[in-house]
Design a protein that fits this description.
Elements lengths: L1 E3 L9 H9 L5 E3 L11 H10 L13 H7 L9 H7 L4 H10 L1
């Protein structure tokens, strides 16, 4: 869930962030910046997150690159055929077909 730190946005209130934390939802704090000057708004997002009891461990963009990439789920249906075939025991398809034909 995104905690947008832009003063014009601040659409997630601290109470929403607290509810998200209680449900195990991870947070991203972003500035919505289009210039480097806009990065100064990060303090508004961090302040809002702190009021919602959000800790560093709850914020995705505080993770190392390895942990961030490791926490991503694969897209549904993105499993390769090789991985899918490896989950079926060798010869299981043939046995199931023969059993069904009896």
């Amino acid at each position: 869930m995104e905690c947008n730190a832009s003063p014009e946005r601040l659409d997630l209130k601290d109470t929403h962030l607290r509810m998200a934390k209680e449900r195990g939802v991870k947070i991203v704090i972003s500035t919505d910046a289009h210039t480097t000057r806009g990065l100064a708004a990060m303090r508004f997002g961090v302040t809002t997150a702190r009021r919602g009891w959000i800790e560093k461990k709850d914020v995705i963009n505080t993770l190392s690159t390895e942990k961030l990439l490791g926490s991503l789920r694969p897209k549904p249906g993105a499993a390769s055929r090789g991985k899918l075939a490896a989950t079926v025991a060798p010869g299981a398809r043939g046995k199931a077909k023969r059993a069904g034909s009896k």
